Amino acid sequence: MRTSMLVNQWFRKSAVLLFTALSLGASACQEETTAPVVRRIHQAYDLVSFLDQEAKALSDLNAVSRKSVSQDGSVTEAKIISTINWAEELGSFADADINRPALAGVFTKEVSSDALGQQVHRYKAKEDASTNIQQVTYTLDAKGQLVQLDATIVQENFLFKTQKLLHLEAHSGPSPRLVRYFLDETQKLMLMDAQRYTITGEVAVKQTPAAL
Question: For 32-48, what is each residue's pLDDT tens digit?
Answer without folding.
Answer: 444 454 477 899 999 99
